[in-house]
Amino acid sequence: MGNTSYFSLRTAMVSRIGREVELSPVELGSQTAKRVEINLASGSPDPRVMPVKEIKEAYDYVLEEFGPKALFYPGAGGQEVLVKEAWNYADFLGVKRRAGDSLVITSGAQHGIELLSLYFLDGNGKIAVENPTFVETFQPMKLLSSVVFPVSLDSRGIRVDELEFVARLTKLDFVYVIPNCHNPAGVNLAEERKKELVELASKYDFYVIEDDPYRTIACGLGEPIKNYDREGRVIYVSTFSKVLAPGLRVGFFIANEEIAHKVSLMEQMDFSTSTVNQYVVARLLQQRVPQDRRGGLYEHYGRKMRVLMDELRDRGLTDFNEPKCGFFLLLDSHKSSRRVFEEAVKRSVSVVDAKPFFLRGGETMLRLSVAVENEERIKEGVRRLREAVEAA
Amino acid sequence: MGNTSYFSLRTAMVSRIGREVELSPVELGSQTAKRVEINLASGSPDPRVMPVKEIKEAYDYVLEEFGPKALFYPGAGGQEVLVKEAWNYADFLGVKRRAGDSLVITSGAQHGIELLSLYFLDGNGKIAVENPTFVETFQPMKLLSSVVFPVSLDSRGIRVDELEFVARLTKLDFVYVIPNCHNPAGVNLAEERKKELVELASKYDFYVIEDDPYRTIACGLGEPIKNYDREGRVIYVSTFSKVLAPGLRVGFFIANEEIAHKVSLMEQMDFSTSTVNQYVVARLLQQRVPQDRRGGLYEHYGRKMRVLMDELRDRGLTDFNEPKCGFFLLLDSHKSSRRVFEEAVKRSVSVVDAKPFFLRGGETMLRLSVAVENEERIKEGVRRLREAVEAA
User: Fold this and answer.
1) I need a labelling partner for A101 at 20 to 30 A (CA). Which of A189, A312, B52, B101 fits?
2) Of A287, A311, A335, which marks where a domain is finished?
3) Residue A51 has pLDDT above 80, yes or no
4) A16 domain residue, yes or no
5) What is the pLDDT of residue B32?
6) Which pTM does this prediction carry?
7) Is A56's CB within 8 Å of B63's CB?
8) Which chain B positions have a beta carbon within 8 Å of A233's beta carbon?
9) pLDDT grade, residue A12 (50/70/90)?
């Protein structure tokens, strides 16, 4: 039997997703990061500040208190107790609740965005995204849409004037925006642009998917785009991955009731969100763990970001937007990002080649992360990166 | 703001999935089950035999031993340690490993089947399923295919002669089969039909998705269909939901390397399988918890099934196939299944109206489950069901 080769299989019909799906550069970066000394690639939160003890206690509590009930099938839409606590948390984050809004629990923001892509698109939709955008959340949108319009990003976020130009020419299904601590660009969306964006959505009849994972670990941000929305056009997506731990795979989104209802039914297709993990996150919210961590994490990552920026400038790598929050800084290396990536790996430092985050341009861009390394290692990483840029 | 109605929204374009998704009768049954005294509806394993203590200890161990590492992003395809243990477990289950086979960790079997549906189908595929089939796993297939052929099921499983009739007429993408302890029909697929099925797959160039969740809690079964496959045409899907707990959301499938590779990349679209839960299941496998539970669970559910069958016969409800294993028995009530369901709820007992499991017929069929109730309550449930049938 072992001799039979797969070459004997005639070519199967597979879907466009099956044909076109590919390894994301972030996954490549993560895999590379495991083999190098210094990891400036990963978007996983800093293990040193992960609340492992609190999470462990929460599992103990939940399994002791609820037993089998916490281990049944999750059902669609989320556990009642977590939906309630997540609403309180959204309120804490400053997300305004409109009449008719519903909240749906997901297996992290990525899962929420996959479901929303499946809801809006079936291979022939038209969407707009920031240029650059986050390549992982973009993957389901790309694979399920027919036309993607890249809209420029500057230091104040998405260029709404450019978006209007697109919206005037074609009927968009939705616009995907990361308004705060942008991944990979590090920028925040300016307040007046949020208002303009919502006005455009109304005028040209499209939805806005607002992906806002970093609000959970940032302070001093403006309003969510959603707060300007009076028509149920903005879908607010969040996660507990940054403030608690990504390995729990728990997040949520808030949308008008029609979308929320349909997408929660779509969760019957995968039933992927662990019941016990939902109980654990609910418990941690009741104990105010995510709420109490916000300010400290903002400081923690902000400090590391300042070290990164200072070191980059000291080393003559000065072409970047100054991030106000989050993990990421987008550096223009003025060299081929692919070659810099390879030279960096030779020096045992991993960064993410940011070219695939761009639908246009980006050939010299690198995404640097302050998420997992400490200050000393960030400095050393930049020193090696400088050499890599020179060698590239 | 609260006055603005959603009626002001123009009709958005949504995908076929977004339009057509609906509440499954199993979800309806589960929701109903929460409001009644006796639950003969649920497919969740018996809480009385769920290994809550072992699961709790495994979380303690994993978070103590691995800390943040168990809480990072899961990556695509599954944690290495679990992939290794799941292979050993597949071997324990009697699943033969072919050269070129790969194993992919999923968020339960449902998630695996959703991903496989997305891999093979994009709205225009042709598939065949058993009539009846499991309505929940069927949902993604239905929403992503263009033509579904129902193939009759008898007491020896899918009618392979009927399947050949279909395969001769049209090019199928895949056939979806639940070979053991069928949900909802309770039957097992006969050994010679497995061989014939694999021969048909080769002759007519289609894949077979073998959904085999109950093998984990059943003994004395024949070979997996996959063991007859020499060409990599059978995809074997399993889960830890029945033998451990569904709330962990961990399962796996085994396929040829091309399919396994592509589908594991597709997991980048949702990243839904909790990292810590993967470590927990790996730990429980190392401790042989699922392996050691198999025989006892087979006995446990078998005993309850015999009580159900005896009581049904005593009450004159005799029209069913005798299940050899699993949770489910399919009863022909000879009355409208919808009306019997309603009459049963009036008597505070929940069953599942099995009509939606059928693509043809099934108007008088009920799915009864022995999963969660004890023997006394099963008897009482049947007593009330008898009244419901009479009243319907």
Assistant:
1) A189
2) A287
3) yes
4) no
5) 80
6) 0.95
7) yes
8) 9
9) low
Closest-CA distance of chain B to residue A359, Å: 18
Q: Could you tell me if A111 lies within 8 Å of chain B, comparing CB atoms?
A: yes
Query: Any chain B CB within 8 A of the CB of A282?
Result: no
- Residue B202 is predicted with a pLDDT of 97
Calculate mean pLDDT across residues A343-357: 95
**What's the structural domain count of chain B?**
2
pLDDT above 50: residue B371 = yes
Pick from A236, A175, A227: nearest CA to A204: A175
Residue of chain A nearest B6, judged by CA positions: A231
Residue A7's pLDDT is 40
Domain that holds residue A74: 53-287
Structure tokens that stand for B315 in this block: 């009450």
Contact B198, B94 (CB under 8 A): no
A216 touches chain B (CB under 8 A): no
B79 part of contact set with chain A, CB < 8 Å: no
Mark whether A266 and A196 lie in a shared domain.
Answer: yes
Please tell me if residue B4 touches chain A, with a CB cutoff of 8 Å. Answer: yes
- pLDDT of amino acid B292: 98
Provide mean pLDDT across the span A299-317.
Answer: 98
What DSSP string runs through B209-234? EEE-GGGGG--S----GGGG-SSS-E
CATH of the domain at A376: 3.90.1150.10
Contact residues on chain B for A48, CB-CB shorter than 8 A: 68
B280-324 residue pLDDT tens: 999 999 999 999 999 999 999 999 999 999 999 999 999 999 999
In the three-class reduction of DSSP (H, G, I as helix; E, B as strand; rest coil), residue A280 is classed as helix
Q: Which of A107, A110, A119 sits opposite B17 (nearest CB)?
A: A119
Looking at per-residue pLDDT, the higher value among A14 and B332 belongs to: B332
- In a domain, residue B1? The reply is no
Inform me whether the C-beta atom of residue A238 falls under 8 Å from chain B C-beta atoms: no
Of B287, B315, B343, at which residue does a domain stop? B287
What is the residue-wise DSSP string for B140-195? Answer: HHHHHEEEEEEEEEETTEE-HHHHHHHHHHS--SEEEE--SS-TTT-----HHHHH
Let me know if residue B64 belongs to a domain: no
Residue in the structure block whose two tokens are 């196939």: B321
Helix and strand numbers (H, E) in chain A are: 13, 13
Q: What are phi and psi of A207, to 5 degrees?
A: -95, 160
Statement to judge: residues A225 and A88 lie in one domain = yes
Q: Which of A9, A16, A64 is nearest residue B232 as measured by Cβ atoms?
A: A9
For B249, residues 6+ apart whose C-beta sits below 8 A from its C-beta are A74, A271, A272, A273, A274, A275, B107, B108, B111, B241, B272, B273, B274, B277
Does residue B144 belong to any structural domain of this protein? yes
Tell which phi-psi region holds residue A286, choosing left (phi > 0), alpha (psi between -120 and 50) or beta.
alpha
For residue A181, give how far its alpha carbon lies from the nearest alpha carbon of chain B (Å): 19
Out of A176-185, A328-337, B18-27, B58-67, which region has the weakest mean confidence (pLDDT)? Answer: B18-27
* Residue B109 tokens, joined: 């079997």
Same domain as A270, residue A338 = no
Q: Is the pLDDT of residue B189 over 90?
A: yes
Q: Is the pLDDT of residue B275 over 80?
A: yes
Rounded to an integer, the average pLDDT of B170-182 is: 97
The interface predicted TM-score (ipTM) is 0.95
- What CATH number is given to the structural domain containing A78? 3.40.640.10
8 Å CB contact of A270 and B272: yes
Same structural domain for residues A141 and A67?
Answer: yes
Q: Is B371 on the interface with A (CB under 8 A)?
A: no
Would the CB atoms of A56 and B59 count as touching at under 8 Å?
Answer: yes
Note whether A215 and A199 are within 8 A (CB): no
Question: Residue B122's closest CA among B141, B149, B148, B150?
Answer: B141
Chain B residues with CB-CB distance to A256 below 8 A: 6, 9
Distance from the Cα of A137 to chain B's closest Cα (Å) equals: 7
